[in-house]
Amino acid sequence: MFNKILILDAETRWSKKAVDWAPDTYTLSNMTTEEYIRSSLFKAFGFGFKYYGEEGAPIYITHPFLKKFFGSIDWTTTAVVAHNAQFDIAILTWIYGIKPAFIFDTLSMARALYGIDVGNSAKKLAERFNLPPKGFATQSSDGLYELTAEVEKELADYCKHDVFLCEKFLDNMLPQFPKKELKLIDATIRMFTEPQLALDKDLLQTAISDDESLRASLLGKLNVKEEELASNDKFAAVLSAIGIDPPTKISPTTGKEAYAFAKNDALFQQILNGDNEEAVLLCEARMKVKSTQERTRAQRFLDIAGRADGLLPVPVNYAHTRTLRWGAAKGSNINMQNLKRGGKLRKSIIAPPGYKCVAGDLSQIEPRVLAHLADFTELLEIFKSGEDVYSLFGRIMFGMPTLNKEENPELRQSSKSAMLGCGFRLGWASFASQLLVGFLGAPPVRYDRAFMKQLGISGQTVVEFMTGYPHEGRRGAAAGAERLERMMEIPPHVHRQGTAGSLRLRQGNHRPLPTRV
User: Fold this and answer.
1) 334 belongs to a structural domain
2) Which of 125, 357, 382, 390 is most exposed, with minimal Cβ within 10 Å?
């Protein structure tokens, strides 16, 4: 596949201050990697290089000689290494048209080996491996359109030291890193540097137009101005004018009363899911005015398509989280992992000719892994049998021996969210609030008069229960648990654990779930 490994590091033009050639600044601090490299302002001042394992010091090649140097290399047999390879290899591919045989990324490797909490920058890794510290010479090139001879020499020394450090990083990590994981890192970087997905510009433009039309339609139907919905005080006045008391809460930050207009606020959801159609429309319009995510994302996709010949570089990081899953690259401004199902943004992504885009999912993967880590043998046996574990959990949760996915899809969905939440330390107060929104596709729970009558409780009890915990601390949690027990009769197969009154399922003899996995 490859017979040599080239370590490299790029030094590029940048300015964190406003200058004549970059009045709005030009830095990765306020631009995405894709936007920065594809900018007309971009220039690689030079690259540092060293072949891995060979004797001698790193070399530095300046801008005028880079193409000749790159042309002397057989890239079909040469792998590359960089720290934060997404940046350096994107330059290599987009600016110089080079596709190396294999890509190593010491930043991705460090995240997987040492976790995300300890820091894995070149500076941190140099400290961790007892290496000479990373320098600070790039400060001198800030704002320079072209380099002076003095600055260029300083930058070259800085860059060569970074290459030296990167080789030592690889020395320390490569022996303990699985080969199959290295292949995943290579594939992840190439998803960004060698994009295969295209974007449907017409559909993206339609998404923007539809969002604007819906916003205008809601405002016209309600005969209100956008600022009346965007301002908390003005929106409160609009609600009061139709006989709705504006919901309030105690701010956990200030400890003072504030309007409860956030989409996840329980009392706001109560209005949104209520019977007053005008109030419902006002709340929907408020959320549409306050939320610009869909329109902003569509515009970002359009901008990317315009810069990248209609293609979509996918900016995700390997081992981005504590659980080592992928995550949106820092500063990428698009998250490819949470595009709305069925939405125009998702549909705007086009597979290359001869391929199709499919959504892959592993059946019940989270509780399967959790049951294995917790040595919950009874649950593992249920998975082996092929039974629907969410329905079985729902039968206990709702006291319905015949609950199943076909006849009780909504209850089964709620039991799924409960099971997943319990497995990952979801508190009872947060779970109760999520029921109002409709967690994981479950329908919202309407705390209206009929529902309260069914439970045999007063509206005030619901308000106290739903809003008491966040600002009352541990005492509030205990009080909330007592209110919860007054609201429902705890079945015999469930017992209390802890002062917060969390509920835990008795399911045979097994090792209890750990507090951390």
Assistant:
1) no
2) 357
- Per-residue pLDDT tens for 36-62? 999 999 999 999 999 999 999 999 999
| Mean pLDDT, all residues of the chain | 85
Paired strand residues for 398 = none
The token duo for 420 is 């997943």
Dihedrals φ, ψ of 259, to 5°?
Answer: -70, 140
In a domain, residue 125? The reply is yes
* Strand, helix or coil for residue 163: helix
The pLDDT of residue 517 is 28
Using pLDDT thresholds of 50, 70 and 90, give the confidence band for residue 471: very low
Residue 149 is assigned to a structural domain of this protein: yes
Range of the domain at 442: 365-505
Query: Residue length, the chain?
Result: 517
* Token pair of 316 as six digits: 């995700």
Burial group, residue 450, by CB count within 10 angstroms (0-12, 13-18, 19+): exposed
Tell me, yes or no, whether 107 and 187 share the same domain: yes
For residue 146, is pLDDT > 80?
Answer: yes
Rounded Cα distance, 57 and 161, in Å: 9
Strand partners, 105: 82
The residue with greater pLDDT, 348 or 340, is 348
Q: Which one, of 461, 458, 460, 462, lies nearest residue 445 by Cα? A: 462
Of 196, 212, 241, which residue is a domain's last?
196
Same domain, 382 and 414: yes
Residues 381 and 289 in one domain: no
173/231 same-domain check: no
Whether residues 149 and 230 share a domain: the answer is no
Task: Evaluate if residue 175 carries a pLDDT over 80.
Answer: yes
Query: Are 211 and 174 found together in one domain?
Result: no
Per the CB < 8 A criterion, the answer to whether 114 and 120 are in contact is yes
Report how many domains make up the chain.
Answer: 3
Instruction: Pick 447 or 278 by higher pLDDT.
Output: 278
371 & 470 share domain: yes
**Of 487, 481, 407, 399, which is closest to residue 447 (Cα–Cα)?**
487
Q: Whole-model pTM?
A: 0.77
Side-chain-side CA neighbours of 322 within 13 Å: the count stands at 4
Same domain for 49 and 92, yes or no, is yes
301-330 pLDDT, tens digit each: 999 999 989 999 999 999 999 889 999 998
Tokens at 177, concatenated: 């890193």
Under the banding of pLDDT at 50, 70 and 90, the label for residue 452 is: low
Residue 62, phi then psi, degrees to nearest 5: -80, 165
Number of helices and strands in the chain (H, E): 21, 13
